[in-house]
Automatic annotation (TrEMBL):
UniProt-listed Enzyme Commission number(s): 2.1.1.-
Binding site for S-adenosyl-L-methionine: H39, L41, G66, E87, D116, N132
Source species, domain of life: Eukaryota
Protein name per Swiss-Prot or TrEMBL: rRNA adenine N(6)-methyltransferase
């Protein structure tokens, strides 16, 4: 019996088919755009836990930012009276609409807004915010929410490190400008840890959910000035306040604000008075004893000299008015708030070896600067000179802002 001819398999064709199918598999779900931070929450246990933590009432209006395909949205619609979902990607918005189309109750409760949440002004009214936040906009999103206020609480998903920064306490390694700014307006609590495997596609980092609860009454301060102070003292948080205020970048901006506000005129006048007094004492010592005939001319000459010296200090150019501070915005996710756009420009870090240097030592060229001596005096008298931002709580930071502004130093 003749043997059957052996069958040969062309492995190159088989591998080619596998490669093609593998490539198609990777591109089989083009809906998700990682550039927009689209990582869909797929773990039903995490969704259920978030709904429980949100404590939603049947009369609540809920704001959701970045609903995606609606895994969390559907659960919110079952609990709340109304859900306002803000979605940037029109494709995701279409998927969400399809998902609730067959349910009239859910469809009527959903109010879908297609657009950029950060450009939404004013924000619609809401009681609770629940969101699997796009990580790229974490910082500006938080700032927009906390500055708006008027809501009961917010339950937000963030990258783990960002969430820990947000909830950090004074003395913690992660205590930073973001922490101090957010906790001025809200209480921040870490609520849930979420594994990266709970998302599709999985991100490269772990996540956490935080609970923000607004503080009432809200502090009546200028937020731009508070942020300016934070930029100054958190430039090098482990250095003393005096060292940070004496840094060239900080001192330059603060002195410009001080001059524009008229602080230079006050100190200049004081200097003029002091020099006139010193000159009067010196001239009195040098003046020879004279008779009644030449006594009056000598006094006239002294008065002329006195007027001339006084005018040197008291005749100042017109002082420009301060420009209105621009809104504080935050754009950097990785370093929380380092690239924020605010009135006080970003300050370059300096590698000073001594953290307790004085304002004059920080910049020898400005040792005679009246402004720097003025700031140094404020810090010494108030007891803030040797404090460090890394260990200062919100109350201490507000106290520092108060004494500096009372002394005419403006941060915005």
């Amino acid at each position: 019996m003749p043997k059957a001819a052996p069958t040969f398999i062309d492995k190159t064709k088989t591998l080619g088919k596998r490669s093609a199918s593998g490539g198609a598999g990777k591109a089989s779900n083009p809906l998700f755009n990682k550039d927009l931070g689209q990582h869909i929450l797929k773990n039903p246990l995490v969704v259920t836990t978030m709904i429980e933590k949100a404590n939603i009432k049947s009369t609540d209006t809920v704001l959701e930012i970045g609903p995606g395909t609606g895994n969390l949205t559907v659960k919110l619609l079952e609990k709340a009276k109304k859900v306002i979902a803000v979605e940037f990607d029109p494709r995701m918005a279409a998927e969400l609409q399809k998902r609730v189309q067959s349910n009239p109750t859910l469809r009527t409760r959903l109010h879908l807004i297609v657009g950029d949440f950060l450009k939404l002004d004013p924000l619609p009214y809401f009681d609770v915010c629940v969101s699997n936040t796009p990580y790229q906009i974490s910082a500006p999103l938080v700032m927009k929410l906390v500055e708006t206020g008027g809501w009961r609480h917010a339950l937000l998903m963030f990258q783990r490190e960002f969430a820990l920064r947000l909830a950090a306490k004074p003395g913690d390694t992660l205590w930073c400008r973001l922490s101090a700014y957010s906790q001025l307006l809200c209480r921040v609590d870490h609520a849930i840890k979420v594994s990266r495997n709970s998302f599709r596609p999985p991100p490269q980092v772990e996540s956490s959910v935080v609970l923000l609860t607004p503080t009432y009454p809200r502090p009546q301060i200028d937020l731009a000035s508070y942020d300016g102070l934070l930029r100054a003292v958190f430039n090098r948080p482990n250095k003393t306040v005096r060292a940070n205020m004496g840094g060239r970048g900080v001192a330059k901006v603060l002195e410009a604000n001080w001059v524009a506000a008229g602080g230079a005129a006050v100190v200049g006048a004081e200097q003029g008075k002091n020099e006139v007094k010193q000159m009067e004492v010196t001239d009195a010592r040098k003046e020879p004893k004279s008779t009644g005939k030449n006594k009056l001319p000598a006094m006239d000459g002294f008065l002329d000299l006195l007027a001339q010296k006084s005018s040197d200090f008291l005749s100042l150019p017109d002082i420009p008015a301060l420009a209105a501070p621009s809104p504080v915005t935050f754009t950097d996710e990785d370093d929380a708030m380092e690239d924020a756009e605010a009135e006080l420009t970003p300050i370059p870090a300096e590698d000073d070896a001594d953290s307790d240097i004085s304002l004059d030592d920080a910049d020898p060229a400005g040792a005679a600067s009246p402004f720097r001596r003025h700031v140094n005096e404020i810090l010494e008298k108030s007891g803030y000179a040797k404090k460090r931002a890394a260990k200062m709580d919100v109350t201490e930071l507000l106290g520092l802002l108060e004494v500096m502004e009372e002394g005419g130093v403006r941060f915005a």
